[in-house]
Fold Acyl-CoA dehydrogenase.
Amino acid sequence: MSAQAAETEKQGRPTAKSLQAAREAGAFALHDRTATEAVQLLTELARGCPSTSWIAGTSLTGKIFSRRAIGDVIGMDALLAGSGTPGGRGEEAFGGVRVTGRWANVSGCEDAEWAGLAVLIDGTLSWALIPTRDLRVEHTWSAAGMRGTGSHTLVAEDVLVPVGRVAPLDFTRLAGDMVLFGLTALAPVVGATLGALDLITAMFASDRKPYMSAYASMGESPAARTWRAEATSLARQAERTMLALAAAGPGDHGLDMSGAARDCRVAMDLMLDLHGASGFAESNPLQRYWRDVAVASRHPHINAFLAANRL
């Protein structure tokens, strides 16, 4: 999948090969996996392509929303894009509800078969499942990182959602899932950091020498070994925290989760220090991992400021 990551970013959505590899790995059927199994798979995907992993994670979140509100009414491995922000309104109509609205930042919306969208129906927060063929995509996603997620805006214009695909959304039924929702954002960040660490490990195995030094290799340099060890320690610490939270289950883990995301950012900075300015060349995948981590780690689920602000 790493071979597809650059093209995924260039075209602003996962390549067909990336989507197929993710589907074959079971990444779009994670709602029947344990939290630990889900984050491990998302992490491994992100090691190759963070954007594809991110889309798989948001699909998992949307399927859980759908299962809690409506039940299992779509295919096991169908890709679902979604938004829990009520960007639209629904009006009761014969046979169902007519929905009109706009939902921004819907990751994977160009490739998903289904969209799960929060709507207000007579003041009641509800969840609607709509085939994406019935929606319009506005290309609004332009960000420094996670460019391959295609997190554009979905638009519904008087779309009839039949009975059986729309229901009130009761957040008390989602209380036990909130940690997993955060972990679906954290796992791609951890995986991207580990993917960057793979590049640094390969650099140490190459004949590259530290710039402006007498050392014959990166491994000969005590400073280089220290930088690498610190980056490795932080990346692995973030991974351990993520897996511990997955095993722990429900609870207030916002600070732990955002702390792991910050560990990833610090690890990325150390790796770029170690690599030097050439790590920012557009041809170097290290800068892509760095940008993806910088953007994804500020998601509301794992944002350090927001976690502290909720105390």
About this structure: The CA atoms of residues 128 and 166 lie 4 Å apart. The radius of gyration is 21 Å. The chain has two domains: 2-169, 173-309. The chain is about 45% helix and 20% strand.
